[in-house]
Amino acid sequence: AQTVTQSQPEMSVQEAETVTLSCTYDTSESNYYLFWYKQPPSRQMILVIRQEAYKQQNATENRFSVNFQKAAKSFSLKISDSQLGDTAMYFCAFGSGTYKYIFGTGTRLKVLA
Amino acid sequence: DVKVTQSSRYLVKRTGEKVFLECVQDMDHENMFWYRQDPGLGLRLIYFSYDVKMKEKGDIPEGYSVSREKKERFSLILESASTNQTSMYLCASSLADRVSYEQYFGPGTRLTVT
User: Fold this and answer.
1) Which residues of A touch B96 (CB under 8 A)?
2) What angle do CA B62, B65, B66 make, to 5 degrees?
């Protein structure tokens, strides 16, 4: 069975600094997708970034980038130039097959002014 | 913009009551999901539906049932609410057939069972 592990329950970062959130996963699948979702306080969860396992190149979306290490089964999220609006719960998720996601337990990130 | 709405943001029910949580999406998505979110446990899938009247159990279906009579609407039913069902419930939808597709989430319903 697939598992997703986020080992950092809480983190904080100063505004304008860079922070990296960790995620590891376990699977025997060869083709799958990895995601980072953001859940701001009292707001809806939204997709931050997505990585296809068969793509070597790390995904980037503006200030958000990932470090995807397939052999190590690691998928970390780097947030550059952190902003107060980045304060949120971040979930790593694994997807394979036709519909099912497995979510990690989340990392609560606080950006400090 | 994709919109996923849930019938209530906050709900308080008594033990033994029948509880209905409703979710509506406006993007003609085939897939709809109900998750339960608890601190330290992340999101756990209760049920999902890939078409009208079709459903499949997720990881924690015990104590819950679902109904999907129309494509845009997916209901979660707690037949007899218990205190251990106090939680945040999230609905999501996505296009069919591809796990690569983004899931769009509703705002959540925080249910308290007393």
Assistant:
1) 98
2) 145
The residue assigned the tokens 């819950």 is B64
**A41 contact B CB<8A:** no
Rounded to a whole number, what is the distance in Å from the CA of B82 to chain A's nearest CA? Answer: 24
pLDDT of A38-60, one tens digit each?
A: 999 988 999 999 999 988 899 99
In which band, very low, low, confident or very high, does the pLDDT at B2 lie, cut at 50, 70 and 90? low
Give me the amino acid identity at A3: T
Q: DSSP state, A31?
A: S
CA distance A45 to A39: 4
- Run of H or E including B111: strand B109-113
pLDDT at A97: 74
**Which is nearest to B59 in space by CA: A3, A89, A52?**
A3
